[in-house]
């Protein structure tokens, strides 16, 4: 049993089921990120944890106590909203202490708790302002202060950074991460920004259409996506998907496809599992991230399974630190990540290097990963 | 920490409080509006005279009502009044709104002048126009005093024309408001569309006819609904302006209902006329409210 | 109403503009005329009205008609002037406006922030009540007021105006609160605030503009009401509009037009004042009552 447990949770609005059988167990001090496309039910799940939405069936437990039907204010949670939800008629100080006031905490205690939080978040100078007189970043801090001051067991964040500009978002991201490291509180954090998900989390739950697609560490999610949805949703540019035919030949397993001229390309698959082996002769989807598809000099030198083949360059997109080069394999458009000074130019035929240690395979019908 | 009960008392209370708070208003609406409507509709099928009585007479009151010359006059007047009132208000309102939309200097001064009549009671409006149109002291008298001896304007005393004075006073009271409605509609139209149309070479006339006025559909609809509902409810204005006269020349269903119910002691017939008024308004309002409330989730 | 600020992109020629200004001024004249006539003739001796020109300024200025209208004129059977009726109106309007606004605010709050299945239908039922022809409720209302001994009393009128005003106030607050971020309510819930605490501490302090709209709308409507006043009031509770009508229609003696005009202005004064002070809110209220959404 974890610190926060979500057991077989379902949620329906009328006849529409927006969450299907969600099972997540969050350990104490963990930073769980819920990520997924818009409308997949992230906020709904978060609101159910907060007690702002009823749970249709299933259980939510905090420290082993059943939370179903418990009023939000008695769950010992705090929440930071996307719009910050600062009370417009109250000053920053009043905003921060409102929750304590509602819980009948004596004034002196409220005051000192507020000072503590103000110091932690460096908002001491803003305490007498109204939310309308704050910048976006300052509002964000106040919203976090309001959550922190209650010293809750679990923090819930619903896309807290999505209203900030790009620079501020990166700064606040770092700050949230520091806060988590310093305070060690349990956090459930909703975002649809996969970079945020990767950088902040200890674990990620990728959701789609009300289903948890995969729950795992950022590395697991990124390197071994459970299915095609997770593979394409996480990572930018997204993972290349190439149709290949598997041929098992004794120990050796090969994935066959074609390059831009239609010539056959054979890629040896290291450490192929039995499932993949059994697909011999069938067509599957090879997933390879752009950083594992490079120019021959850019290939990972530690990898012992780099396969090379020539193909014609479609377009090149210099992006400063790298240059993205497109080509096609198996008639699917692929993006390769090359060094910035690559001499690839449109129409030229160059050598591409596949780091097959990073390759994953999916069943094209079910979309599930094949080991 | 809360104990793991399936819904603690406070949470249960919080679930019921909203409904509890809404219930007095709802109960009032159910009793005083819908209960009363049922009661009145029921009375319209009874032989009630000075007091409600419960002898069932079926549709007799309705048959009587439609044979009454008095009711026929009221309904005809309603038709004339409603059509003219709505058309003129819409025409004036739209014209003024379009004029106002031409970057008029002094809009801030003019707009309140156009709108203040809406703040007045129909009784005040009726009183003012009653004496202004009175041939003895009003416009006619003034023209005579100014030397235009042959000037005659006695519509308010003339059976055939008195209803038009009701239209005049009602238009005076509401047309400014209709203007505000159209103006809000005009100001809500995306300026970029207008600029694009001007670049396309549309003349102002075409701009309004082809681009702008078609986009004012919601404003037209609202104006229609508001004006129709005001027209059917018109009562005070007639009482103050003409008292329904001369003779019965300006009787409307609302005045008819009142006098049959409370002065002529024909409650059954009065109730039948009220029922017909309600059905007329409902025919306009229910589809309107339905579409308004359905769109917004 | 932000749209009211937008500048039109349309250009017009100078001749057209002259015509437009002329027409706009003509209409301004039309709208101002009755006010002018009432004003001018309320400060004239009666002889100047009957014998002369209604448009002319007074030759002898006098406040006598105002004094008479206020405290002496024959209203119905008594020669009390309009004064007692003015107070009747105040005594009726203030509680009715207050109660209907509070109820409307609570209803709007429930209907937007504590939604439940079927709430839109309930709202539709309440809203339709604003538009019924009140003739349909006169008979049973008279009975019910009689049964509860409220007939002819100010409180009876307060009840009537609250009942038939709630639909509008609910509409205003519902539309206003619909745009009020629900996240604030959720944040307050998590902070431990209950239903009424959220209402008092979070919603009401941000409701200034819509309270003004609702109060003005209700004030104007209730002050200007004639039908209910004429149907359910007696001398002790008759409002200003009914008294003015009695004054003007009284068939005994000479018609004192100047007194009638002074009385009409007295009856119009409170709403007119409200309109002058807070006209733009008034307009906004009218609009909210029609162009919903
Ligand atoms: N009150 C409601 N009634 C009916 N359906 C709802 C309601 N609230 C949410 N939904 C539906 O539930 C689904 C999940 O909504 P939710 O707000 O959880 O999405 P989300 O993942 O947070 O999306 P976003 O990233 O856009 O915030 C959506 O399809 C939404 O339309
Ligand atoms: Mg969301």
TrEMBL record, chain A:
Domain of life: Bacteria
Gene Ontology molecular function: ABC-type transporter activity; ATP binding; ATP hydrolysis activity
PROSITE patterns xref list: ABC_TRANSPORTER_1, ABC_TRANSPORTER_2
Annotated ABC transporter domain residues: 4-234
SMART domains: AAA (SM00382)
Pfam family name, one: ABC_tran
InterPro entries for the chain: AAA+_ATPase, ABC_transporter-like_ATP-bd, ABC_transporter-like_CS, ABC_transpr_MalK-like, ABC_transpr_MalK/UgpC-like, Mo/tungstate-bd_C_term_dom, NA-bd_OB-fold, OB_MalK-like
GO biological process, one term: carbohydrate transport
Keyword annotations: ATP-binding, Nucleotide-binding, Transport
Gene Ontology cellular component list: ATP-binding cassette (ABC) transporter complex, substrate-binding subunit-containing
Entry's family note: Belongs to the ABC transporter superfamily.
Record's protein name: sn-glycerol-3-phosphate ABC transporter ATP-binding protein UgpC
Lineage per the UniProt record: Bacteria, Pseudomonadati, Pseudomonadota, Alphaproteobacteria, Rhodobacterales
